[in-house]
User: Which sequence fits this backbone?
Protein backbone atom coordinates (compact mmCIF):
# COMPACT_ATOMS: atom_id res chain seq x y z
CA UNK A 1 0.00 0.00 0.00
CA UNK A 2 1.47 3.35 -1.04
CA UNK A 3 1.15 6.68 0.73
CA UNK A 4 -1.45 7.76 -1.82
CA UNK A 5 -3.66 4.87 -0.74
CA UNK A 6 -3.75 6.14 2.86
CA UNK A 7 -6.11 9.00 3.71
CA UNK A 8 -7.28 10.61 6.92
CA UNK A 9 -10.51 11.97 8.35
CA UNK A 10 -11.95 12.66 11.77
CA UNK A 11 -14.80 10.12 11.68
CA UNK A 12 -14.89 7.00 9.50
CA UNK A 13 -18.49 5.88 8.97
CA UNK A 14 -19.31 2.37 7.77
CA UNK A 15 -22.72 2.14 6.10
CA UNK A 16 -24.81 4.54 4.01
CA UNK A 17 -28.17 3.72 5.52
CA UNK A 18 -30.16 6.25 7.56
CA UNK A 19 -27.83 6.01 10.58
CA UNK A 20 -24.60 6.62 8.68
CA UNK A 21 -26.02 9.32 6.43
CA UNK A 22 -27.72 11.24 9.24
CA UNK A 23 -24.53 11.10 11.31
CA UNK A 24 -22.50 12.34 8.35
CA UNK A 25 -24.87 15.25 7.78
CA UNK A 26 -24.95 16.23 11.46
CA UNK A 27 -21.15 16.21 11.62
CA UNK A 28 -20.86 18.15 8.35
CA UNK A 29 -23.11 20.90 9.72
CA UNK A 30 -20.79 21.21 12.71
CA UNK A 31 -17.61 21.35 10.60
CA UNK A 32 -16.42 17.83 11.43
CA UNK A 33 -14.97 15.79 8.56
CA UNK A 34 -16.17 12.27 7.84
CA UNK A 35 -15.95 9.64 5.13
CA UNK A 36 -18.82 7.18 4.53
CA UNK A 37 -18.06 3.71 3.14
CA UNK A 38 -20.89 1.65 1.63
CA UNK A 39 -20.69 -1.92 0.32
CA UNK A 40 -23.58 -1.60 -2.16
CA UNK A 41 -23.97 0.62 -5.20
CA UNK A 42 -25.98 3.83 -5.07
CA UNK A 43 -28.93 2.43 -7.02
CA UNK A 44 -29.35 -0.44 -4.55
CA UNK A 45 -29.04 1.79 -1.48
CA UNK A 46 -31.61 4.26 -2.79
CA UNK A 47 -34.00 1.52 -3.87
CA UNK A 48 -34.19 -0.83 -0.87
CA UNK A 49 -37.63 -0.57 0.74
CA UNK A 50 -37.64 -0.57 4.52
CA UNK A 51 -39.53 1.38 7.19
CA UNK A 52 -41.90 4.18 6.34
CA UNK A 53 -43.15 5.64 9.65
CA UNK A 54 -41.21 8.64 10.95
CA UNK A 55 -41.64 9.87 14.50
CA UNK A 56 -42.22 13.56 15.08
CA UNK A 57 -38.70 14.06 16.48
CA UNK A 58 -37.19 12.32 13.44
CA UNK A 59 -39.12 14.59 11.07
CA UNK A 60 -38.15 17.67 13.06
CA UNK A 61 -34.46 16.70 12.97
CA UNK A 62 -34.44 16.05 9.22
CA UNK A 63 -35.97 19.47 8.64
CA UNK A 64 -33.45 21.14 10.97
CA UNK A 65 -30.65 19.38 9.07
CA UNK A 66 -31.82 20.93 5.80
CA UNK A 67 -32.91 17.67 4.15
CA UNK A 68 -36.65 17.93 4.75
CA UNK A 69 -37.90 19.89 1.75
CA UNK A 70 -39.25 16.87 -0.15
CA UNK A 71 -40.34 15.24 3.10
CA UNK A 72 -42.52 18.24 3.95
CA UNK A 73 -43.95 18.29 0.43
CA UNK A 74 -44.60 14.57 -0.12
CA UNK A 75 -44.81 13.03 3.37
CA UNK A 76 -48.23 11.92 4.62
CA UNK A 77 -48.83 13.40 8.06
CA UNK A 78 -51.01 11.32 10.38
CA UNK A 79 -52.47 12.52 13.66
CA UNK A 80 -53.95 9.22 14.76
CA UNK A 81 -54.14 5.46 14.31
CA UNK A 82 -57.01 2.97 14.30
CA UNK A 83 -57.05 -0.12 16.51
CA UNK A 84 -59.54 -2.64 15.09
CA UNK A 85 -60.80 -5.65 17.00
CA UNK A 86 -64.09 -7.48 17.28
CA UNK A 87 -65.04 -6.06 13.90
CA UNK A 88 -65.01 -2.47 15.19
CA UNK A 89 -62.50 0.36 14.80
CA UNK A 90 -61.29 2.65 17.58
CA UNK A 91 -59.21 5.74 16.79
CA UNK A 92 -56.33 6.88 19.01
CA UNK A 93 -55.93 10.66 18.40
CA UNK A 94 -52.19 11.33 18.62
CA UNK A 95 -52.47 15.10 18.35
CA UNK A 96 -55.02 15.42 21.15
CA UNK A 97 -53.00 13.18 23.47
CA UNK A 98 -49.47 14.45 22.78
CA UNK A 99 -49.80 18.20 22.38
CA UNK A 100 -50.19 18.23 18.61
CA UNK A 101 -47.54 15.71 17.60
CA UNK A 102 -48.00 13.01 14.99
CA UNK A 103 -46.17 10.72 12.56
CA UNK A 104 -45.25 11.07 8.90
CA UNK A 105 -45.39 8.32 6.29
CA UNK A 106 -42.30 8.73 4.13
CA UNK A 107 -40.32 5.72 2.93
CA UNK A 108 -36.85 5.03 4.27
CA UNK A 109 -35.55 4.91 0.71
CA UNK A 110 -36.81 8.47 0.21
CA UNK A 111 -35.00 9.63 3.36
CA UNK A 112 -31.85 7.97 2.05
CA UNK A 113 -32.18 9.65 -1.36
CA UNK A 114 -32.50 13.07 0.28
CA UNK A 115 -29.47 12.49 2.53
CA UNK A 116 -27.29 11.18 -0.30
CA UNK A 117 -28.20 14.16 -2.47
CA UNK A 118 -27.31 16.57 0.35
CA UNK A 119 -23.98 14.88 1.01
CA UNK A 120 -22.95 14.81 -2.63
CA UNK A 121 -24.03 18.43 -3.08
CA UNK A 122 -21.80 19.37 -0.15
CA UNK A 123 -18.87 17.51 -1.71
CA UNK A 124 -18.48 15.27 1.36
CA UNK A 125 -16.85 11.87 0.71
CA UNK A 126 -19.23 8.96 0.13
CA UNK A 127 -17.77 5.82 -1.44
CA UNK A 128 -20.06 3.14 -2.88
CA UNK A 129 -19.16 -0.46 -3.78
CA UNK A 130 -16.49 -0.76 -1.13
CA UNK A 131 -15.24 -4.30 -0.44
CA UNK A 132 -13.51 -6.10 2.42
CA UNK A 133 -13.95 -3.38 5.06
CA UNK A 134 -11.92 -4.13 8.22
CA UNK A 135 -11.91 -1.89 11.29
CA UNK A 136 -8.49 -2.06 12.96
CA UNK A 137 -6.97 -0.48 16.04
CA UNK A 138 -10.30 0.20 17.70
CA UNK A 139 -8.68 -0.19 21.12
CA UNK A 140 -6.05 2.48 20.33
CA UNK A 141 -6.08 6.23 19.78
CA UNK A 142 -5.48 5.67 16.06
CA UNK A 143 -8.18 3.41 14.62
CA UNK A 144 -8.45 2.86 10.88
CA UNK A 145 -10.65 1.31 8.23
CA UNK A 146 -8.94 -0.89 5.66
CA UNK A 147 -10.88 -1.68 2.50
CA UNK A 148 -10.80 -2.18 -1.25
CA UNK A 149 -12.26 0.36 -3.66
CA UNK A 150 -11.92 0.52 -7.43
CA UNK A 151 -9.63 -2.50 -7.27
CA UNK A 152 -7.14 -0.90 -4.86
CA UNK A 153 -6.33 -1.61 -1.21
CA UNK A 154 -6.85 1.53 0.84
CA UNK A 155 -6.66 2.68 4.44
CA UNK A 156 -8.71 5.41 6.10
CA UNK A 157 -7.15 6.63 9.33
CA UNK A 158 -9.48 8.40 11.72
CA UNK A 159 -10.07 9.44 15.31
CA UNK A 160 -13.31 7.50 15.65
CA UNK A 161 -15.12 4.75 13.73
CA UNK A 162 -18.92 4.76 13.54
CA UNK A 163 -20.37 1.32 12.76
CA UNK A 164 -23.67 2.00 10.99
CA UNK A 165 -23.51 -1.06 8.76
CA UNK A 166 -26.60 -3.01 9.79
CA UNK A 167 -27.15 -6.37 11.45
CA UNK A 168 -25.00 -8.27 8.94
CA UNK A 169 -22.20 -5.69 8.89
CA UNK A 170 -18.56 -6.09 9.84
CA UNK A 171 -18.18 -3.64 12.71
CA UNK A 172 -19.85 -5.65 15.45
CA UNK A 173 -17.68 -8.66 14.56
CA UNK A 174 -14.56 -6.50 14.89
CA UNK A 175 -15.08 -6.23 18.64
CA UNK A 176 -13.00 -8.73 20.67
CA UNK A 177 -14.87 -11.83 21.82
CA UNK A 178 -16.50 -11.41 25.21
CA UNK A 179 -16.62 -7.61 25.11
CA UNK A 180 -20.28 -7.52 24.04
CA UNK A 181 -23.43 -9.17 25.36
CA UNK A 182 -26.32 -10.06 23.06
CA UNK A 183 -29.97 -10.14 24.17
CA UNK A 184 -32.44 -11.73 21.75
CA UNK A 185 -36.07 -12.81 21.61
CA UNK A 186 -37.45 -14.65 18.59
CA UNK A 187 -41.21 -14.44 18.09
CA UNK A 188 -43.12 -17.54 16.89
CA UNK A 189 -44.54 -15.78 13.83
CA UNK A 190 -43.63 -13.55 10.92
CA UNK A 191 -45.21 -10.95 8.64
CA UNK A 192 -46.26 -11.53 5.06
CA UNK A 193 -45.99 -8.05 3.55
CA UNK A 194 -47.21 -6.75 0.21
CA UNK A 195 -47.06 -3.52 -1.76
CA UNK A 196 -50.21 -3.01 -3.82
CA UNK A 197 -50.71 -0.47 -6.57
CA UNK A 198 -53.98 0.89 -5.19
CA UNK A 199 -55.19 3.90 -3.25
CA UNK A 200 -55.10 3.25 0.53
CA UNK A 201 -58.44 2.17 2.01
CA UNK A 202 -57.95 4.38 5.06
CA UNK A 203 -56.45 7.79 5.77
CA UNK A 204 -54.51 6.36 8.73
CA UNK A 205 -52.84 3.11 9.75
CA UNK A 206 -55.06 0.27 10.97
CA UNK A 207 -53.75 -2.26 13.50
CA UNK A 208 -56.11 -5.23 13.45
CA UNK A 209 -56.53 -8.00 16.02
CA UNK A 210 -58.31 -11.06 14.63
CA UNK A 211 -58.69 -14.68 15.70
CA UNK A 212 -56.90 -15.71 12.48
CA UNK A 213 -53.97 -13.44 13.24
CA UNK A 214 -52.75 -9.86 13.12
CA UNK A 215 -53.15 -7.59 10.08
CA UNK A 216 -51.85 -4.10 9.37
CA UNK A 217 -53.03 -1.55 6.82
CA UNK A 218 -50.40 1.06 5.97
CA UNK A 219 -49.38 3.04 2.92
CA UNK A 220 -46.35 4.44 1.11
CA UNK A 221 -48.08 7.12 -0.98
CA UNK A 222 -51.56 8.18 -2.11
CA UNK A 223 -51.27 5.50 -4.82
CA UNK A 224 -49.44 2.67 -3.00
CA UNK A 225 -50.84 0.60 -0.12
CA UNK A 226 -48.67 -1.44 2.26
CA UNK A 227 -50.40 -4.42 3.91
CA UNK A 228 -49.24 -7.12 6.30
CA UNK A 229 -50.59 -10.47 7.52
CA UNK A 230 -49.33 -12.50 10.46
CA UNK A 231 -47.99 -15.82 9.21
CA UNK A 232 -45.54 -18.56 10.14
CA UNK A 233 -41.93 -17.29 10.47
CA UNK A 234 -40.78 -19.76 7.79
CA UNK A 235 -43.86 -19.36 5.59
CA UNK A 236 -43.36 -20.36 1.95
CA UNK A 237 -44.40 -17.31 -0.07
CA UNK A 238 -45.25 -19.61 -2.98
CA UNK A 239 -48.21 -20.87 -0.95
CA UNK A 240 -49.68 -17.37 -1.04
CA UNK A 241 -50.94 -16.47 -4.52
CA UNK A 242 -52.47 -13.01 -4.82
CA UNK A 243 -56.02 -14.33 -4.57
CA UNK A 244 -55.34 -16.00 -1.22
CA UNK A 245 -53.66 -12.89 0.16
CA UNK A 246 -56.61 -10.65 -0.69
CA UNK A 247 -59.11 -13.17 0.67
CA UNK A 248 -57.27 -13.33 3.99
CA UNK A 249 -56.93 -9.56 4.19
CA UNK A 250 -60.66 -9.11 3.60
CA UNK A 251 -61.42 -11.65 6.35
CA UNK A 252 -59.20 -10.07 8.97
CA UNK A 253 -60.12 -6.45 8.26
CA UNK A 254 -63.87 -7.13 7.95
CA UNK A 255 -66.00 -4.32 9.40
CA UNK A 256 -69.51 -3.19 8.59
CA UNK A 257 -69.51 -0.16 6.31
CA UNK A 258 -65.82 -0.46 5.41
CA UNK A 259 -64.20 -2.16 2.44
CA UNK A 260 -60.62 -2.96 1.46
CA UNK A 261 -59.53 -1.75 -1.98
CA UNK A 262 -57.65 -4.23 -4.16
CA UNK A 263 -55.02 -3.59 -6.79
CA UNK A 264 -52.04 -5.27 -8.49
CA UNK A 265 -49.51 -6.65 -5.99
CA UNK A 266 -46.09 -5.37 -7.06
CA UNK A 267 -44.04 -6.86 -4.22
CA UNK A 268 -44.46 -9.50 -1.51
CA UNK A 269 -42.28 -11.28 1.02
CA UNK A 270 -42.09 -12.84 4.48
CA UNK A 271 -40.17 -11.31 7.39
CA UNK A 272 -39.56 -13.18 10.68
CA UNK A 273 -40.09 -11.17 13.87
CA UNK A 274 -37.41 -10.81 16.52
CA UNK A 275 -35.87 -8.46 19.04
CA UNK A 276 -32.09 -8.06 19.38
CA UNK A 277 -29.94 -5.76 21.51
CA UNK A 278 -26.15 -5.50 21.83
CA UNK A 279 -24.67 -4.19 25.08
CA UNK A 280 -22.67 -2.02 25.14
CA UNK A 281 -22.92 -0.20 21.81
CA UNK A 282 -19.28 0.85 21.87
CA UNK A 283 -15.80 -0.56 22.28
CA UNK A 284 -12.75 1.66 22.41
CA UNK A 285 -12.93 4.08 19.48
CA UNK A 286 -15.70 2.10 17.74
CA UNK A 287 -19.26 3.38 18.27
CA UNK A 288 -22.12 1.41 16.73
CA UNK A 289 -25.63 2.58 15.87
CA UNK A 290 -28.90 1.40 14.35
CA UNK A 291 -29.45 -2.17 13.16
CA UNK A 292 -25.80 -2.98 13.83
CA UNK A 293 -26.68 -3.16 17.52
CA UNK A 294 -30.45 -3.52 17.78
CA UNK A 295 -33.42 -4.95 15.89
CA UNK A 296 -36.99 -4.09 16.93
CA UNK A 297 -40.22 -5.82 15.83
CA UNK A 298 -41.87 -3.70 13.16
CA UNK A 299 -45.11 -3.55 15.17
CA UNK A 300 -43.84 -0.48 17.01
CA UNK A 301 -42.42 1.31 13.93
CA UNK A 302 -39.17 2.11 15.75
CA UNK A 303 -36.29 0.75 13.64
CA UNK A 304 -35.35 3.79 11.57
CA UNK A 305 -36.30 6.16 14.37
CA UNK A 306 -34.00 4.42 16.86
CA UNK A 307 -31.15 4.57 14.36
CA UNK A 308 -31.63 8.33 14.00
CA UNK A 309 -31.87 8.70 17.79
CA UNK A 310 -28.57 6.81 18.22
CA UNK A 311 -26.58 8.99 15.86
CA UNK A 312 -28.14 12.14 17.25
CA UNK A 313 -26.62 11.19 20.63
CA UNK A 314 -23.34 10.18 18.98
CA UNK A 315 -23.09 13.42 17.00
CA UNK A 316 -23.64 15.48 20.12
CA UNK A 317 -20.92 13.52 21.93
CA UNK A 318 -18.45 13.84 19.03
CA UNK A 319 -19.04 17.57 18.64
CA UNK A 320 -18.39 18.03 22.35
CA UNK A 321 -15.25 15.86 22.26
CA UNK A 322 -13.70 17.46 19.18
CA UNK A 323 -14.39 20.97 20.49
CA UNK A 324 -13.35 20.49 24.12
CA UNK A 325 -11.38 17.28 24.46
CA UNK A 326 -13.87 16.14 27.11
CA UNK A 327 -14.77 12.48 26.50
CA UNK A 328 -17.54 12.20 29.11
CA UNK A 329 -20.39 12.19 26.57
CA UNK A 330 -18.62 9.67 24.35
CA UNK A 331 -17.99 7.39 27.30
CA UNK A 332 -21.69 7.59 28.18
CA UNK A 333 -22.93 7.00 24.62
CA UNK A 334 -24.14 3.44 25.20
CA UNK A 335 -25.88 4.18 28.48
CA UNK A 336 -27.70 7.13 26.95
CA UNK A 337 -28.84 5.19 23.87
CA UNK A 338 -29.71 1.92 25.55
CA UNK A 339 -32.29 3.50 27.81
CA UNK A 340 -34.24 4.59 24.72
CA UNK A 341 -33.54 1.29 22.95
CA UNK A 342 -35.00 -0.78 25.78
CA UNK A 343 -37.97 1.56 26.12
CA UNK A 344 -38.68 1.10 22.41
CA UNK A 345 -38.18 -2.66 22.71
CA UNK A 346 -40.76 -2.75 25.47
CA UNK A 347 -43.26 -0.75 23.42
CA UNK A 348 -42.74 -2.97 20.37
CA UNK A 349 -43.07 -6.12 22.53
CA UNK A 350 -46.27 -4.75 24.09
CA UNK A 351 -47.82 -3.90 20.72
CA UNK A 352 -46.75 -7.26 19.30
CA UNK A 353 -48.12 -9.18 22.27
CA UNK A 354 -51.41 -7.28 22.18
CA UNK A 355 -52.23 -7.91 18.51
CA UNK A 356 -50.72 -11.23 17.37
CA UNK A 357 -52.38 -14.60 17.68
CA UNK A 358 -50.21 -16.82 19.89
CA UNK A 359 -49.64 -20.28 18.37
CA UNK A 360 -50.01 -22.12 21.70
CA UNK A 361 -53.26 -20.36 22.73
CA UNK A 362 -55.38 -23.50 22.43
CA UNK A 363 -58.18 -22.45 24.75
CA UNK A 364 -58.24 -18.78 23.77
CA UNK A 365 -56.94 -17.51 27.12
CA UNK A 366 -54.36 -15.19 25.60
CA UNK A 367 -56.84 -13.90 23.01
CA UNK A 368 -59.22 -12.89 25.80
CA UNK A 369 -56.40 -11.04 27.57
CA UNK A 370 -55.62 -9.20 24.32
CA UNK A 371 -59.24 -8.12 23.85
CA UNK A 372 -59.36 -6.88 27.45
CA UNK A 373 -56.14 -4.91 26.99
CA UNK A 374 -57.31 -3.41 23.70
CA UNK A 375 -60.65 -2.42 25.23
CA UNK A 376 -58.81 -0.73 28.09
CA UNK A 377 -56.46 1.19 25.77
CA UNK A 378 -59.43 2.42 23.72
CA UNK A 379 -61.50 3.47 26.74
CA UNK A 380 -58.86 4.94 29.06
CA UNK A 381 -57.31 8.31 28.20
CA UNK A 382 -54.25 7.44 30.30
CA UNK A 383 -53.68 4.14 28.46
CA UNK A 384 -54.31 5.73 25.06
CA UNK A 385 -51.86 8.52 25.93
CA UNK A 386 -49.15 5.98 26.76
CA UNK A 387 -49.60 4.36 23.34
CA UNK A 388 -49.71 7.71 21.55
CA UNK A 389 -46.62 9.12 23.28
CA UNK A 390 -44.57 6.05 22.45
CA UNK A 391 -45.82 5.85 18.87
CA UNK A 392 -45.08 9.47 17.91
CA UNK A 393 -41.75 9.24 19.75
CA UNK A 394 -40.85 10.03 23.33
CA UNK A 395 -39.25 13.45 23.62
CA UNK A 396 -37.56 12.48 26.87
CA UNK A 397 -36.39 9.11 28.15
CA UNK A 398 -35.30 8.94 31.76
CA UNK A 399 -35.84 12.70 32.08
CA UNK A 400 -33.16 13.60 29.52
CA UNK A 401 -33.74 15.34 26.19
CA UNK A 402 -30.73 14.07 24.29
CA UNK A 403 -29.04 15.11 21.11
CA UNK A 404 -29.23 18.91 21.38
CA UNK A 405 -26.51 19.80 18.89
CA UNK A 406 -28.24 22.65 17.03
Assistant:
Amino acid sequence: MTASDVTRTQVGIVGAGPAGLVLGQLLHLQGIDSVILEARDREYVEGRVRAGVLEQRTVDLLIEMGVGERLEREGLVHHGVELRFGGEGHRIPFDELTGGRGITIYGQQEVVKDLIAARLEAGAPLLFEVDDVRPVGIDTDSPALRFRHDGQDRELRCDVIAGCDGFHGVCRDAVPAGALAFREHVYPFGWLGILAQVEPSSDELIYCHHDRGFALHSMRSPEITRLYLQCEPDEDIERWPDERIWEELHTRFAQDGWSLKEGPIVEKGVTPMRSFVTEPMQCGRLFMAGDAVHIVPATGAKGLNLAVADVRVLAEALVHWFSSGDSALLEGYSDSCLLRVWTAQHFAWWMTSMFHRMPDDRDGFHARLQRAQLAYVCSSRAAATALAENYVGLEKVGGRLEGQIF
